[in-house]
UniProtKB/TrEMBL annotation:
Protein known as: UDP-N-acetyl-D-mannosamine dehydrogenase
Domain of life assignment: Bacteria
InterPro entries reported for this sequence: 6-PGluconate_DH-like_C_sf (IPR008927), NAD(P)-bd_dom_sf (IPR036291), UDP-Glc/GDP-Man (IPR017476), UDP-Glc/GDP-Man_DH_C (IPR014027), UDP-Glc/GDP-Man_DH_C_sf (IPR036220), UDP-Glc/GDP-Man_DH_dimer (IPR014026), UDP-Glc/GDP-Man_DH_N (IPR001732), UDP_ManNAc/GlcNAc_DH (IPR028359)
Reactions catalysed according to its record: UDP-N-acetyl-alpha-D-mannosamine + 2 NAD(+) + H2O = UDP-N-acetyl-alpha-D-mannosaminouronate + 2 NADH + 3 H(+)
NCBIfam families: NDP-sugDHase, PRK11064.1
Amino acid sequence: NTISVIGLGYIGLPTAAAFASRQKQVIGVDINQHAVDTINRGQIHIVEPDLDKVVKAAVEGGYLRASTTPVEADAWLIAVPTPFKGDHEPDMVYVEAAAKSIAPVLKKGALVILESTSPVGATEQMAQWLAEMRPDLSFPQQAGEQADINIAYCPERVLPGQVMVELIKNDRVIGGMTPVCSARASELYKIFLEGECVVTNSRTAEMCKLTENSFRDVNIAFANELSLICADQGINVWELIRLANRHPRVNILQPGPGVGGHCIAVDPWFIVAQNPEQARLIRTAREVNDHKPQWVINQVKAAVADCLTASGKRASEVKIACFGLAFKPNIDDLRESPAMEIARLIAEWHSGETLVVEPNIHTLPKKLDGHCTLVDTQQALNDADVLVMLVDHHEFKTISGDSLSQHYIVDTKGVWH
Ligand code: SAJ
């Protein structure tokens, strides 16, 4: 039995590797030739703890190989990106391209699973694309339980940085277009899953994925809104949250510089795009979180103004150091990072030097190159007048109070208070 995974990115590659590690024949398909070549050498093109070892063993054992074109398989998993188009509308072009690429090699009895985060109805739409290209086969939308092809939506819910653990341990929502589709998809995931398969229909499963990330976004927005209110009231928001969380039914998340990454800042918009009138809280949460970097910039401007008044320096003589660029602590992923955005806006506005400390990277990304200087923690502490804490990486939390005391500080993570 062959399993084919379309899209070998942050989700597809770990999933392909998990099946291969259980001695299943897996063919990974990606349009990126570099990714395909790298994987076929037993290496990986993305950063994720332990993924390298699993991929290496799978390729060397002959269980996993990658290709740029689909070949016949018994089960297909589609894990391609679903970015935005226009004004926060989900763009299904990659799912459509993936469906159309497997349609010619689909055979009777195959199972097709969509894993990509998608708007409600996407699985039925995918089934339609397949049916249009293969009139010789029957699909669940017409043939129900008797269909030649089974189709399900089974979202991933793994946390970047812990993918190899969560992929296996987390419960999995299985949204089949029919009960038979769900049963077959559950059977497939049970090959490596230690968590439970929880069965529903495809539309509920699609909405479930969007709901999980919106839940987190709304809760982070609550914390971010509190941080604005507390700053205005002269209250330490981190102390406030610690105290409130002593209530047995209160569990507030942590404020920060904004919400980054390619999921939580994106997925809630899929709900808003489909239900703009009803999704008022979800939209507002997005706006609250997206506004946070601008608020941080205003705090930085105020700190620089204080520094100018007290030191008598000219603005061009003031050095600002940004601590952290990644979208969350202890990773090197800069995608959709509010910290990056803040560093860029500071460098754009500030006439003096902008320093950046990011222990997880060796060179500055293009967006900042030429505008900021990458330095280590010690140099930033020695040279800068204003320190901006953006990401609570381990190494920043241990900086002593003494080395901070001579600086003007904007701390978006509450680790230096
Ligand atoms: N953040 C805060 N305060 C917090 C927690 C997080 O500001 O208290 C910020 C982080 O700094 C980061 C952003 O939110 O910028 C998102 O980080 P995250 O760790 O909450 O989530 P992701 O984006 O790494 O992964 C999420 C997870 N979803 C949920 O926890 C509901 C993961 O399980 C999903 O699989 C993933 O999105 C995805 O691929 O959809």
